[in-house]
Amino acid sequence: MYEHDVIVVGGGGSGLRAAIGAHEAGADVAIVTKLHPVRSHTGAAEGGINAALREGDDWELHAYDTVKGGDYIVDAPAAETLAQDAPENVVQLENWGMPFSREEDGRMSQRPFGGLSFPRTTYAGAETGHHLLHTLYEQVVKRGITVYDEWYVTRLAVTDEDDPNDRSCHGVVAWDIQTGEIEGFRGRDGVVLATGGDGQVFDHTTNAVANTADGVAMAYRAGVPIEDMEFVQFHPTTLPSTGVLISEGTRGEGGILYNGEGERLMYEYGYATNDGELASRDVVARGELTEINAGRGVDDEYVHLDMRHLGEERIVDRLENILHLAEDFEGVDGLENPMPVKPGHHYEMGGIETNENGETCVDGLYAVGEAACVSVHGSNRLGGNALPELLVFGARAGKHAAGEDLGEPEIPVGKTEGDEGIEESDVDFPVEPGALAASSAVVSGDSPEGVVDAALEAETERIEGLLEKDEGVNHADVRSKIQKSMTDNVNVFREEGAIEEALETIREAREEYEDVSVADKSRTFNTDLQHTIETRNVIDTAELIAMGALAREEFRGAHWRKEYQERRDDEWLKHTMISWNDGTPELWYRPALLEGENQTYEPKERHY
Amino acid sequence: MSQSHNRGLVEDFGRWREFSAGMWAWVFHKFTGWVLIGYLFTHIAVLSSALNGDAAYTQTLQGLEQLAVVRVLEVGLLAVAAFHILNGIRLLFIDLGVGTALDTQEKSFYASLILTGIIVVVSVPVFLEGL
Amino acid sequence: MSTQTPDTDDSDPQAERMARKDERAAEREEAASTPDVGDDAITLKVFRYDPEVADKQEPRFDTFHVPREPGITVLDALIYARDTYDSSLTFRHSCRQAVCGSDALFINGSQRLGCQTQIADLNDSETVRVEPLPHREVVKDLVVDMDHFYDQMDAVEPYFSPKEDPDGEQLQSRENREKIKMSTRCIWCGACMSSCNVAAGDNEYLGPAAINKAYRFYFDEREGEDRQEERLRIIEQEHGVWRCQTQFSCTTVCPKDIPLTEHIQELKREAVKQNLKFW
Amino acid sequence: MAERYSSFSSGSTRWFLQRVTAAFLVVTLAFHFLLLHFFHHAPEITFSGSHARYSVPAYFVTMVLFLAAATFHGTNGIYNALVNQGVTGTPKRVAKWVLVVAGVLVFVQGIRVALALTGGA
Ligand SMILES: Cc1cc2nc3c(=O)[nH]c(=O)nc-3n(C[C@H](O)[C@H](O)[C@H](O)COP(=O)(O)OP(=O)(O)OC[C@H]3O[C@@H](n4cnc5c(N)ncnc54)[C@H](O)[C@@H]3O)c2cc1C
Ligand code: HEM
Ligand code: SF4
Ligand code: F3S
Ligand code: FES
């Protein structure tokens, strides 16, 4: 068994920041990650980091934009913490050497981004995430923080009390991808999940192949409520063939969207009257898809994003990376031609329920980054708000896990019977969601080590079982079935029948998965086994999204419902919560917190 | 990783076809450098006949020059020296940061090859004269 | 917000479009699956090795036939082969967009990122030969041991470390950022190291990627001059910059177009300049 | 990995000298070739011809420098090539001293030849 004070699962931006935070607070911290840190998908982020750094801007404006952008089911304390802590975190990055783009006077550059009332998106070319990830990793190296890279975490070591609120997490079980060795990792003071997004639930995504929502699924099965999963952001400008992202920065700098008839669609068809291309992402994505569906797209598939008028100099200066991406992955020269784009899965607003300190309801278990939902993004994330989230809440969770006092959190976590505002859902699912038989990923043990050992034993058995089974279904078939169904049915436009169909398909996939087998029997670098384990997480996550989507009978932010064409604030200013409940998921709600430090965020109509 | 596989030098096969210009330049420069230093040693050895008196010296040198192989080898030596010099100059410029762009360095390598060729062709009559 | 409504009448344009799309996909699939080895299939020859599997202990090449789709990359072809024919085919990949640096491979005799290499752009686009990165130990199939590469990166103290902690935002001129811009683009793919014959011979040679990393900090004006000297000390050690023989292989293969040779040369000159000063 | 080094073992001196000698050799080697193959023809070289040339002090000095430069450049080049191939430890030390000795021998022998050519007749 490996032992450290704090175990961080995941080496992306959030995990690295958490590890540095814990280290700063004096803990012995280790990162356990299935990819070497610099391979994490944070490196793909292009546009920038929002932070109120300059004269004329302040954190309250940032917080306001965030709440409004999220269509008012953002928790105000989270949005305000984000806005308050972002500037110092961005300056911190600068002090760690991150090569931000610069103004004439040598200060960091900022640019406009969709949904922002001030150009506060701090950037480093069109490859901000790459620089952020590498800068953070450099600091991890500098501090000598232990990194177990290419170790796949398969399970949390969580105790098995009946009420998840009473459970505690003592570590994780991970398996060394290179050698096949399975080991327990004990986190004396805490475990931080920083496992990133869930793009693999859909088949057209800007996300990496490694984004399989492992953390969300592991926490879910250990009893932690999962929040707001139906809010999936579809980015309006992804390349049609691969899903590679064309940054919002392109529109921020003045790029224009045209439909197949050469009309500037955002204005012509009134999807957004003021901000045009810079309206919030959900608005633009729907605008494009409506055009395409109405036969005004190009090849029935996409629209055009044109940046040629910006001139070569400006494009090369600020968007050079976009030129490479369009050339390498779509064969289009952005200086000569408009680029084809269409909406694609991009970001999961929901995730593991946490408070401002990154704590979940399970003692010692934290979650940060895209895997978590402290609820700063509500129903729609503003561009440039995920990276500051990684920094702000990553640092907080790391410090808190290492024992630093960050004050009482305002956001409650965990389902406590009789708590104010908590209500059960009465939605009917077409099929029973959850496990086929009662199941839960918790264990008993008489000491923290005992718990880790028990988890290790259970997990070893599961993995051996998978490897021993001779004939069966290939995970890839199950995964692609889920991806196809989710893309067809729980996409930008959603309707009841389709979502139900998706839930049925997910159920079928679950049944097929029962029979899954791993063809590769080798212990060495067995990606077949890895992908098989991931597929189970993809199934659980797809179900979380579909359940939430079916239950939410309104149109809010990224969640559009054919049957309910408006935001229904009287009834729906609340977060969707799903608890695993030993395999028979429970859906319940917790009211959104709109009470801020100096103001209450009154829901207003969003228009751009 | 005690289990990992080391392909040894085999892995270089199949690669030479894809060698970039810079790689070829490196291979040739290395080869010519070794030939030159080898020659330097031989050369001094041959000239050492001078220590045995003037007749020995003259005889040794002229005797050697009578042999066709020696003449042909001398052409080879010229080729080697010419390439080493020209490519050496190219490398010196690259050291100074001039012509380090990928395509420039390729062109300068081809230029040194072609120049070497020309020098050799032009010099052949001179070298083989009087055989 | 009503503007957000697509035609909600009974016809369902989205469903119709999806149907059209599925049809097209089915046609393509059909075209690809009729005789598997159809004229237009790509022949993929892949290096296989697994220390634990009896018939893979001796490395061999397996052949797969992959349908040719417009714009198909080597990575797409590998994924297709794995998901369709042999799920034990092993390779690293993640981002699919040339930022994670996982899938540097030896493709038709040269180091390339699988995801960034369109098969149609290869010299020989009929037969694609995929091997693990040369001069690295093979762990399994296309996966190589990267530890040595990471060690060399670590050796150059790859982190920003000014003499004093900065007080607030540091300024940096545009020129200076421009100067280090290319060097900051490295994605640690290891292609350069693998292509360099000197690095193959001299295990201690820092190698182009690590030297480039040193360059990135050496020329960052925010670090200060004292640090420059210390950094110089690291890169001008015997197995540092001097080992570079300007082969240009690294520069040729770098997927991020970093002018590595130029950077290494510049550091050599810096070192000579420094040492001349002491004389 | 990043072994600290003392400035004496700095590769920069040898690297720099390799370039300086190269630059010098460009001139001398070209001169040497032109003189002894094109201006005078190699088959016609005689002791007295050489003697005449070596008797000019400038020529003598140039040739000695030429030899020194070539010897350093050549042996140092080989040493580099060996280090590049990953030769380390004892073999490396042995190679180094063998090269130094060989270099000195060639140089001494060359001087003796030059003196013989200068004096002699
Ligand atoms: C193309 C693209 C562009 C974007 N642009 C922007 C932008 O401009 N601005 C912005 O603010 N946001 C942007 N985002 C969003 C933002 O980049 C991501 O939300 C954020 O980087 C996620 O970081 P993370 O640390 O949570 O996860 P990741 O960076 O994905 O890291 C996840 C880590 O967890 C590890 N891991 C996962 N599962 C396991 C397991 N089972 N065991 C062990 N380790 C595991 C992985 O190895 C990885 O290291 C963008 C996102 C994408 C996809
Ligand atoms: C005439 C002008 C010459 C020039 C411009 C020249 C230039 C160079 C340069 C720049 C290098 C270094 C390559 C590197 O380290 O990257 C080199 C290497 C070398 N040179 Fe020369 N050189 C010349 C003459 C000679 C002569 C006369 C000899 C023989 C005595 C010689 C023998 C070598 C050897 C052995 C190497 C090492 C090759 C290797 O790396 O294996 N050179 N030369
Ligand atoms: S320098 Fe280029 S080739 Fe080398 S690791 Fe970095 S990105 Fe890859
Ligand atoms: S290939 Fe090697 S020799 Fe130098 S130019 Fe690149 S490091
Ligand atoms: S898959 Fe990330 S670089 Fe190719």
Any descriptors?
heterotetramer, B: 131 residues, mainly alpha, 3 helical TM bundles of succinate and fumarate reductases, 4 helices, elongated, D: 121 residues, 0% strand, disordered N terminus, binds protoporphyrin IX containing FE, binds iron/sulfur cluster, binds FE3-S4 cluster
Q: What can you tell me about this protein's structure?
A:
The complex is a heterotetramer of chains A (608), B (131), C (279) and D (121). Helix content of chain A is 35%, strand content 17%. Chain A is α/β, with parallel strands linked by helices. Chain A has a domain at 233-345: Succinate dehydrogenase/fumarate reductase flavoprotein, catalytic domain (Flavocytochrome C3, Chain A, domain 1). The N and C termini of chain A lie far apart (54 Å). With 131 residues, chain B is mostly helical. Chain B has a domain at 19-38 and 68-127: Up-down Bundle (3 helical TM bundles of succinate and fumarate reductases). Chain B is elongated. The termini of chain B are far apart. The longest helix of chain C is centred in the first third of the chain and has 21 residues, at 13-33. In chain C, 53% of the residues are buried. Chain C folds into two domains: 42-144, Roll (Ubiquitin-like (UB roll)); 147-164 and 173-277, Fumarate Reductase Iron-sulfur Protein, Chain B, domain 2. In chain C, the strands form two sheets. Chain C has a five-stranded mixed β-sheet with strand order 2-1-5-3-4. In chain C, strands 6-7 form a two-stranded antiparallel ribbon. In chain C, α8 crosses α10 (260-278). The termini of chain C are far apart. By secondary structure, chain D is mainly alpha-helical. In chain D, 79% of the residues lie in helices and 0% in strands. Chain D contains four helices and no strands. Chain D is elongated. Chain D starts with 10 loop residues before the first helix and ends with a helix. Chains A and C meet through α3, α4, α8, α9 and α12 of A and α1 and α4 of C. FE3-S4 cluster is lined by residues 195-196, 198, 208, 244-250, 260-261, 264 of chain C.
Summary?
The complex is a heterotetramer of chains A (608), B (131), C (279) and D (121). By secondary structure, chain B is an all-alpha fold. Chain B is 73% helix and 0% strand.
